[in-house]
Amino acid sequence: MGVGSPEPKPKLDQMPQWPSLPLPAAAAAVARRAAPFALRRSFSSSTPASVCASASIHDRVSTTTACPEDEESPSLVVVGGGAAGVYASIRAKTLAPHLNVLVVEKGRFLSKVKISGGGRCNVTNGHHQEPLGMARNYPRGHKELRGSFFKTHGPQDTMRWFSDHGVELKTEDDGRVFPVTDNSASIAGKAVSGASVIENGRFVLKVEKRTIDFVDYINADYVVVATGSSQQGYSIAAQFGHSIIAPVPSLFTFKITDKRLADLSGVTFPRVKAKLKLDGIQKSAPELTQIGPMLVTHWGLSGPVVLRLSAWGARELHQYNYQAKLTVDFVPDIHIEDVKRILFQHKDHHASLDGDMHWASIPNNNLNAIALRLKQWIFEVVAKGQFKDEFVTAGGVPLSEISLSTMESKKQPNLFFAGEVLNVDGVTGGFNFQNAWTGGYIAGTSVGTLASRNNLRQQQSYLQLEG
Question: Which residues form the RsdA/BaiN/AoA(So)-like Rossmann fold-like domain (predicted)?
Answer without folding.
Answer: 76-445
